[in-house]
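Re-run with default settings, no changes from the original entry. Doing this only to confirm the output is reproducible before filing.
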Amino acid sequence: MSPYPTNPTDYFPSRDGIGFYNSYKEDIQLLKEMGLKIFRTSISWSRLFPNGDEEQANQEGLNFYHNLFNECKKNGIELLVTLAHFDVPMGLVDKYGSWRNSKMITFFERYSRTCFEEFGEYVKYWITFNEINIILHSPFSGAGLTFQEGENKNQTIYQAAHHMLLASALAVKYAHSLDHNLKIGCMIAGGAFYPYSCDPKDVFQALKDDQENTFFTDIQVRGYYPSYSKRIFEEKGVNINISEEDKEILKNTVDFVSFSYYASRCSTSSYENKEMNSGNVVKSIKNPFLETSDWGWVIDPLGLRITMNQIYDRYQKPLFIVENGLGAFDELVDNEVDDDYRIDYMQRHIEAMEDGVRDGVELMGYISWGIIDLISASTGEMSKRYGMVYVDLEDDGKGSGSRIKKKSYYWYKNLIMNNSSLQ
């Protein structure tokens, strides 16, 4: 069952969102006017399979996505679609225990096949799981996992991750058999791990943290478990059930590697007498050389260039930056938002991205998170705004829901207009 309270008097902004379901045509026009070339969105698994284990998809849900994707196509906007974006039908959580159960592989396979068959004519680029590595840091968000008292959480998490990796590989296999033009990618929450000091213990901890972070992409790109996974499993008391058939399935590897980038991380062998970096779901020591956002996330444009080089050197596969942006308090004054801080953040990160390309990194594209304000996944707040379009809604649900272009909207529109290679 969900670990979150369900008091009917409580208000949860994420339950209502920003009303995109009803306003998508107008919102797509905002993207078109901006000059956006590609729009990243996600299909809600439970909108197609409300309980998760149905044999047939919900036609009303299929109709919505046909209409949405067709609207994008009419307006000349390419699509990048995520199949599972921190989204597991609660029926599967309550009835099967979510991804701890191997039956989930069959349910996801049915769901992903339905998506490829129904929407393949509109969507060329796909991601199987959003930030799959977040299962290690927030198991319920990442995989719908809850735990019993005394349970070996690491065992459950890594076995669930194995089931997710198999489901992802089977989705890749089917998509390629259906249409060789479909491109399927994996995704992690990216960000370089810096040693807190030049103490070899800190340097080695940064290496271990980076291995843990790229554990998933190592498998999804290379098609097998990395050698260091044996050490991880031994240290965490984990014994994964991996069959020979599983090993064959994992050989169905992705076409590209995508990642989100908001911040770098700082690793240490000892947390004693060190200040923690607040706000980010990935545990990290505060980096004294970097400024932070309103929510305590470090701002590190050079870290994006470093991350691009590290991931590309590791895999030699095309990269796709699918999330990058600044969560901040925005003030609406006289129906305008002067978010120069966001423009500065994005300008510096885009310049770092361009430097990464000059370093030789093969980059498919860059997508800002997000173009239109939306509920923050990490905090559940509306007030943590990422968009370049302001949505008139507050944390308590009050507001008209109207869309107002921020200063950054016009800046980004001009940037796209003058840079034909920018996604």
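Residues 218 and 314 are 9 Å apart (CA to CA). The mean pLDDT is 94.
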